[in-house]
Specification:
Shape of chain B: globular
Largest sheet of chain B: 6 strands, mixed
Oligomer: heterodimer
Order of helices and strands of chain B: EEEEEEEEEEE
Helix content of chain A: under 10%
Number of helices of chain A: 0
Number of strands of chain B: 11
Strand content of chain B: over 45%
Order of helices and strands of chain A: EEEEEEEEEEE
């Protein structure tokens, strides 16, 4: 069974440009999460989808970030316009619904974003 | 204060050694607890969940002390392949939400 996939694996853009990250969760996983790790910091939660609905977007840093999950399958995370502090590794994770919070989250390989 | 705190290490140990990692969390309402392993430039992978009664998986033993808000991971007979960063992870919410709170990780290096 395929794991969580993310595209692109790396992205280098200039400040002010737009970047769109894509995540394909494990088939059948209704929960989809975005996390981010900036240099020297811990991994931090950004937002959580259940199917196509945003369950929690409390971790989104500001309105330059827009996440979508149309149709409840893959998700995109757009950063527009990108700033230097947006550089980091963006991870996507997916899990099955249910389990009282104990469901295992499987992480994708991440997208390494560098804003110059 | 960070929600999840870990000793960053690095821990440099010889093969065969026993090594213990500690972690504290600040939110007493936290419901679920995990250790994830992250290899260099890779994604985090679940190593084991941590239960109140403690649990063991081969050479790995995890313990949870809710009263002290303390989690531990013990690795016995360490192997070269155990070299990685170990992330202490807490689920902030109960119920079905799984928004994970990560520590910064403890780096382990096992030497021949």
């Amino acid at each position: 069974e395929a794991g969580v996939t993310q595209f692109p694996s790396h992205s280098v853009i200039e400040k002010g440009q737009t970047v769109t990250l894509r995540c394909d969760p494990i088939s059948g996983h209704d929960n989809l999460y975005w996390y981010r790790r900036v240099m020297g910091k811990e991994i931090k939660f950004l937002l959580h989808f259940v199917k196509e609905s945003k369950q929690d977007e409390s971790g989104m840093p500001n309105n330059r970030f827009l996440a979508e999950r149309t149709g409840g399958t893959y998700s995109t995370l757009k950063v527009q316009p990108a700033e230097l502090e947006d550089s980091g590794v963006y991870f996507c994770a997916s899990s099955q619904v249910g389990g009282g919070g104990k469901e295992t989250q499987y992480f994708g390989p991440g997208t390494r974003l560098l804003v110059l | 204060r960070k929600e999840v705190e870990q000793d960053p290490g690095p821990f440099n140990v010889p093969e065969g050694a026993t090594v213990a990692f500690n972690c504290t969390y600040s939110n007493s309402a936290s419901q679920s607890f995990f250790w994830y392993r992250q290899d260099c430039r890779k994604e985090p992978k679940l190593l084991m969940s941590v239960y109140s009664s403690g649990n063991e998986d081969g050479r790995f033993t995890a313990q949870l002390n809710r009263a002290s808000q303390y989690i531990s991971l013990l690795i016995r007979d360490s192997k070269l392949s155990d070299s990685a960063t170990y992330l202490c992870v807490v689920n902030r919410h109960g119920g079905s939400q799984g928004n994970l709170i990560f520590g910064k990780g403890t780096k382990l290096s096992v030497k021949p």
